[in-house]
Structure formats: structure tokens, C-alpha cells
Design a protein that fits this description.
The complex is a heterodimer of chains A (about 110) and B (about 120).
Chain A: E1 3-7, E2 10-14, E3 19-26, E4 30-38, E5 45-50, E6 56-59, E7 62-66, E8 70-75, E9 84-92, E10 98-100, E11 104-109
Parallel strand pairs in A: 2-11
Antiparallel strand pairs in A: 1-3, 3-8, 4-5, 4-9, 6-7, 7-8, 9-10, 9-11
Chain B: E1 5-7, E2 10-13, E3 19-24, E4 31-38, E5 42-50, E6 53-56, E7 65-71, E8 74-79, E9 88-95, E10 107-108, E11 112-116
Parallel strand pairs in B: 2-11
Antiparallel strand pairs in B: 1-3, 3-8, 4-5, 4-9, 5-6, 7-8, 9-10, 9-11
The chains are: A mainly beta (about 110), B mainly beta (about 120).
Chain lengths: ~110, ~120
């Protein structure tokens, strides 16, 4: 059964304190792994898609990496505006559906 | 582009009443998804349309839920009769929906917060 697990559930950091969020997955053939950001009261906002192990993508202070079992979202020198819930989802080869993780709530304190 | 548009943004109703949620996908997108999000269950796919045709409605909780897509620019999700356990945030998302696409990014609307009293 396809499954996505995100950790930690919540993460509190000081402004400027770098860290990483984890997304572990099991899927019968990976078509794509997606990272989204969700602010309170808003819909998920697309960040990255990763297709194969070893791939990396960057956007401002965020960098996403992918292995055969997990993905990391690295946050470098975060700012308070990076506070949000970060969602991970995978799409397998045998299914069009996205399998969603429960998300990591990130809080950056000034 | 305006992005995915949903209405209403908030809906408060009483148990037993009919609720209709509306969605306008991104122009040119051929796939449309309805999701429900709760604290307990996270994001759940309810139904998926491609080229206005329902492809998979296995996520629809029960017969009280129905969805239509009469044309490429409009979809509705209806709950009749509504129950308190239907209280959640309902999202609409769209993607290009190209045949043979390896993957397609889904773009979400702002959601409708539904409270059934």
C-alpha cells in the first residue's frame, strides 16, 4: 500500500536556524514527489516536484532532495514568513492519485 | 491567471440543509479534483474529473455527496442533506490533464470552510 509519513509533526526554530523536514514514502514505482506549502486559511501552494533519486531543486531558502525512500526539505536561515505547514505527496506509476502526508507545521520565531 | 476560484469561502448551515460548493478551474486545465481536509484525516480526494467526465468518485463518502462538471470552467460539489460530520475545508484543484503526462502539478483554490451545526 502506498504511504507517506512526514516528520516531525511540528518544528519550532529561531529565525536563522537551519533545519530539515522529512518525507518518507513507500510506493510501487514513483512517478513524482510533490512539496506544497499551506498557510492558515489558504489552499496548498505548489513548491517542487521531484522525479528521481538524486534530484534536487531549490527556491529561495528552500531546497528539496530525493532518495529512493525519502525526501528532505532543507530550510536555510529561515525567516518568520517561512512559517507554514509543509505537505508532501507522492504519485505512483499505477495510480494518478496523490498520496498525501499529514504535514509538518513549521514555526519560525523572530 | 486568476488561479482556481472557489465560492463561497465560508458556509455555515444547519444539519439537514443542502450545501452547494462551486469551483472554477484554471483556464486550459482539463483535470479537476475535489478534496476535503480535516485535522483528523488530512487531505482526502473525493472525486476526480477529466475533460468534464467523472473518472473516479470512490472517495465520495456516501450518497449524500454528489459532484457535477457541466463544462470545462465550472464544477459543483453538493451535500444533501448535510450533517455535522461534514464540517471541513473543501478544496478544488486543477491540473493540465494532458493524456500521457508523466505527472501533473495540481493547483489548489483557497477552499470553502463548511460548518454544519
Amino acid at each position: 500500500e502506498d504511504q507517506v509519513t512526514q516528520s516531525p509533526e511540528a518544528l519550532r526554530l529561531q529565525e536563522g536556524e537551519s533545519s530539515s523536514l522529512n518525507c518518507s514514502y513507500t510506493v510501487s514505482g514513483l512517478r513524482g514527489l510533490f512539496w506544497y506549502r499551506q498557510d492558515p486559511g489558504k489552499g496548498p501552494e505548489f513548491l517542487f516536484t521531484l522525479y528521481s533519486a538524486g534530484e534536487e531543486k531549490e527556491k529561495e531558502r528552500l531546497k528539496a532532495t530525493l532518495t529512493k525512500k525519502e525526501s528532505f526539505l532543507h530550510i536555510t536561515a529561515p525567516k518568520p514568513e517561512d512559517s507554514a505547514t509543509y505537505l508532501c505527496a507522492v504519485q505512483g506509476l499505477s495510480n494518478y492519485q496523490l498520496i498525501w502526508g499529514a504535514g509538518t507545521k513549521l514555526i519560525i520565531k523572530p | 491567471d486568476a488561479g482556481v476560484i472557489q465560492s463561497p469561502r465560508h458556509e455555515v448551515t444547519e444539519m439537514g440543509q443542502e450545501v452547494t460548493l462551486r469551483c472554477k478551474p484554471i483556464s486550459g486545465h482539463n483535470s479537476l479534483f475535489w478534496y476535503r481536509q480535516t485535522m483528523m484525516r488530512g487531505l482526502e480526494l473525493l472525486i476526480y474529473f477529466n475533460n468534464n467526465v467523472p473518472i473516479d468518485d470512490s472517495g465520495m463518502p456516501e450518497d449524500r455527496f454528489s459532484a457535477k462538471m457541466p463544462n470545462a470552467s465550472f464544477s459543483t460539489l453538493k451535500i444533501q442533506p448535510s450533517e455535522p460530520r461534514d464540517s471541513a475545508v473543501y478544496f478544488c484543484a486543477s491540473s493540465l490533464g494532458l493524456a500521457g503526462a508523466l505527472q501533473e502539478t495540481q493547483y489548489f483554490g483557497p477552499g470553502t470552510r463548511l460548518l454544519v451545526l
